[in-house]
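debug: dumping io for the single-chain case to check the tokenizer round-trip. Nothing else runs in this session.
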Amino acid sequence: MAVKIMITYKFMHLSICRGLLMLSLFCISSFASAGQLVASVDRDTIGIQETFTLTIAADSKANGQPDTSTLKNDFEILSNNVSQFTSISNAGSEFKKVWQLTLAPKRVGALLIPSFNVDGAISEAIEIKVSKQSQTQTTTGDDQIRVVVETDKTTLAVQEQLLVKVKLISQVNLSQAEMQPLDIKDAVVIPLSEKPKQYVTNINGRQHLILESTFAVFPQNSGELTIPSLIYSVLPNIERDLWNDPFGRNRSNILRLPTEEKNIKVTAVPTAMAGKTWQPANNVTLHETWSASLDHLKMGEPITRTITIEADGLTGGQIAPLTFENIEGLTFYPDQPQNGDAKTDKGIQGTRTETMAIIPNHGGEFVLPEVKVDWWDIKTQSMQSATLPAKTLNVLGGAAAATPANPQPIDSSNATTNNAPVVATEIVTKTNPWLLATSIIFALLSFTLLIYVVNLRAKLKALINDQDEANEVISAKEKHIWDLLKHAAANKDAITLRKTVLSWAKFQWPTESIHSLDDVAKLGEKIELTQSLKKLDEHLYSNHPSDDWEPGELLQQLNECRKEKNQKKKSEELKPLYNN
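debug: decoded output
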């Protein structure tokens, strides 16, 4: 038993040794395969305005890459280049992969570049000391390259335009110049050009290169507006070190020039504009165009009015919408307003365009009141108004002509019989001999009246027959128009649908004067029908018609009006039966 235990113990000991040996070999192979990762910088002491280069090199075929996202806490990554090469010597070949980053410090103090891990290889952390002053002497001092910020005013009102110019002034040529984006708290910032304006000017007898970027700034709150310090990264065009930098990738000579912070006072809206739309601008003008002459309009036919508001010193979004009064006899269909901004060296010129279709519902003269826009003149510090004069629309046609009253039918038989006795009486009273002649005349008149009545009955019967035929023709025409109306609705042909609705309505209400869809809506006396007809006109006369317009509801409501008329007609035909 003891021998068996001893053999088992030796076997376990041998297994543990073999495991430890395999683990050691695995660790050694892992370290060998991990290789070496080296991080280095070209300078570890710099000024806040300077940049430096971080190089990370792996001496083996690395599949991974270093995580540089943690660098963004203390540094700006200006560039990140990756290169790889193989060196061959008597000792053999060596493969290297290099990451080269150009960094700029975000603050003064001791900043730490963390260690990196690439495929198990770990680099050492590096400390960078950043001071306020530049640590290197270059051929481009502050007097040769500088950055200034200029504003067109030191005090302005809320939402008023402020022009901010950032100028880079250089006595030397530049290979690169890049400005930090301008971002101002509680303000809308609009760059007036995609690229800086570049020109050369003479300062103190020497030529200077100017890079000028202009921004339109609109403060949204009163108080103090702070224009923060901006960093301009500049690379002077100096001779490159062909030995150390054969490909021109070394960016350690980049200068980072900060601008001074500026504070602007922003006042509240003046009391003179209390209760009015606040629009501070240099100038505001109004323009209008019409799609046709205003002197020969026709009822039921639309005319389009377009009004454009131009504001110097305001964006299109700042321009307030126009308001219009309802006018009896006119229907307005406003389109979606369009805003635009034009950028110039003097700032933003905003526009707002409002378009509407106007449909006269009957003839006559209509007066559109003047259009008025109040705005605040920032040059004179006073309220001004831009206006369009009142317009008169002359619409041909008028209200439906009054239908003459039907004359009361004259009972010819009564008239004749009433007159005859008078004549006979006179004759009898005057002389009895004329009685016979009067009787003969009366007989002739009676016979004539009888023939007239017979003929009248025949004509009346023929007229009734003609009326029945006419009704059948009218019914056939109405059915034909109704079929066209349904076909236009099925095809979503809004133009044809509008015409056929007006044509069909004249059969539906033959005694009424119908010239527009507004007339049809009034005769239909249904809210749903009025809304559907209005949607049809809006779809026709809008510059941006809706794709989801459906004429099915309109067709259903018109069909209800059609059914109501047929039921009413049948009930009227049955009334004589109930009276007997």
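debug: round-trip ok. Helices lie at 2-34, 412-430, 434-490, 494-508, 517-524, 527-541, 552-579.
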